[in-house]
Amino acid sequence: MQVRYFAGAAAAAGIDEELVEVDDGATAAQLVTALAQRHPRLVPVLEVASLLADEVAVRDRGAVLAAPAGGQRLQVDVLPPFAGG
Predict the structure, then answer these.
(1) Backbone φ, ψ for residue 34 (5° rounding)
(2) What Gene3D superfamilies does the entry give (predicted)?
(3) Residue 67 to residues 13, 46, 57: CA-CA distances in angstroms?
(4) Which CATH number is 42's domain given?
(5) In the chain, beta strands by DSSP E
(6) Dihedral sign, CA of 35, 39, 41, 42?
(7) For residues 77 and 13, what is the distance between their CA atoms, to the nearest angstrom?
(8) Which of 17, 23, 62, 79 could serve as 50's disulfide partner, Cβ 3.0–4.6 Å?
(9) What is the pTM of this model?
């Protein structure tokens, strides 16, 4: 899947995006664990970040991240909390 990092998540990961291979049927929690292992500085951000899977909020970290139909790659965005004003 294609993982994109925004704002503080990109700073902590040191990159804006990457391809991440996970098993079919992987959950959001399993993806977060894989990202934490790749980028230890990202751990505090992942604890409070929102995830979007193909632009849909993933509120349950136990949810399975299913690839879209047609063999396309799933896109997951990691969004840290933002302050607005």
Answers:
(1) -65, -40
(2) 3.10.20.30
(3) 23, 21, 15
(4) 3.10.20.30
(5) 2-5, 17-19, 50-53, 56-58, 75-79
(6) negative
(7) 13
(8) 79
(9) 0.91
Q: Which domain holds residue 68?
A: 2-79
Residue 59 lies in a domain: yes
pLDDT tens profile 57-85 = 999 999 999 887 777 899 999 999 875 54
Tokens 């959001």 found at: 28
Q: Which helix (H) or strand (E) holds 29?
A: helix 28-38
Residue type, 59: R
Distance CA 20, CA 34 (A): 8
